Amino acid sequence: MLIDFDWCGKHDMDKYPPSMNKNLSWPPGAEPCALLKKEHDIHWLNLLRDKFKSYMPPKGYRFLHNILYFDILVKNK
Hints:
Layout: H1 38-51, E1 61-64, E2 67-70, H2 72-76
Organism: Dentiscutata erythropus
Protein name: 10596_t:CDS:1
């Protein structure tokens, strides 16, 4: 599970702040005062997934649907 607390808000209701880091390659439509979009979050999640695709997790961790999570059952065995 990945939780992003930087800019919380509802899809198509809340907005980005008036100032944003101009050094980042934001997804299309993500700009100052624009509406927050679920697609923007999916863009960032896909970047993280691609970055860690070849990552081999340590014992006790494994991938589920391309998302790394901690498996308590493995840890307790």
